[in-house]
Amino acid sequence: MARTSTMQKEVERTEQMDLIDVEPENAEQIVTAAHLYKKLQAARMTALEKEVAQKQVILKLIKEAKLQRLEGGKIKYQHNGVIITVTPRDELVTVKEEETEE
Q: Could you report the average pLDDT of every consecutive run of 10 residues in the chain (102 residues)?
């Protein structure tokens, strides 16, 4: 029986105390940072939804243009300093702007 009580004491020592009892001094900073994180996360998710929708617009327009595919099925289109590449397998769209030398 002594063994069980020693084990129980050991388990009790390793358990985390309730956060209410041990609130850190910078608790307000933690909560403020967490609120900002959630706000930024929501903005990122909204931007991601818009990005995905715009990607679909680009894919639709590229397919309608019936551009000739390169080796491997890739489509590459360049116009006014913008290079658009569509990789067919994942319908990956890459848009780059050419750097202009001054």
A: 56 62 85 93 95 94 93 92 89 81 58
Global confidence as pTM? 0.61
Q: Which tokens hold the place of 57?
A: 């617009």
Burial of 77 (0-12, 13-18, 19+ CB in 10 A): middle
Residue that has been written with the tokens 């617009």 in this structure: 57
Sheet of 92-97, strands arranged across: 75-79, 82-87, 92-97
Contact 89, 100 (CB under 8 A): no
Amino acid identity of 42? A
The residue count of the chain comes to 102
Which single residue is written with the structure tokens 């991601």? 48
Which of the 8 DSSP states describes residue 23?
-
